[in-house]
Design brief:
The protein is α+β, with helices and mostly antiparallel strands. The chain is built from 4 helices and 7 strands.
Length: about 180
Amino acid sequence: MIYRPVTPERWTDFERLFEARGGPKYCWCMAFRRDDAGRVPRTNAERKQAMGSKVRCGTPVGILAYDEGEPVAWCSVAPRETLAVYRGLEWPEGDRSTVWSITCFYVKRGIRRVGVMSRLIDEAVAHAGRSGATVVEAYPVAPDSPSYRFCGFVPVFAEHGFVEVGRAGRRRHVMRRELP
């Protein structure tokens, strides 16, 4: 597999993955983001339009995984200050602009349970580091959680050097990894 950040040139790949059968076309990964006017997009079309606007403007939104040229998985990794839902959490010390967040994943059926999420975490951390991040946060849940499973799982992030530093609500754990 190869991994690439979503850019205006890769928007059609992102669209293809999200609109494929079983894809997350209902959210367009806008659950933790706001539109350009600071509003919560209400419809699928509004969410798609808002995400497209972010991509066209060059706002980092995440990475795609490709298998034989086809987009097969997604990881939302972006500067935390571009996200809305976690603004009430404590910030790590230092420059806020260097804190990035991994918020969710989507992996196509047929390639789940073979370590794709684990590889996406590695690639997301590397992408954030190349983009100037000094800290990467994630908000995973316990493996038996009945909800927010798209955020990933605590043991997987722990295996990748993330340390729990708090909670985001009842189910999501706040985990951080400092980059060299």
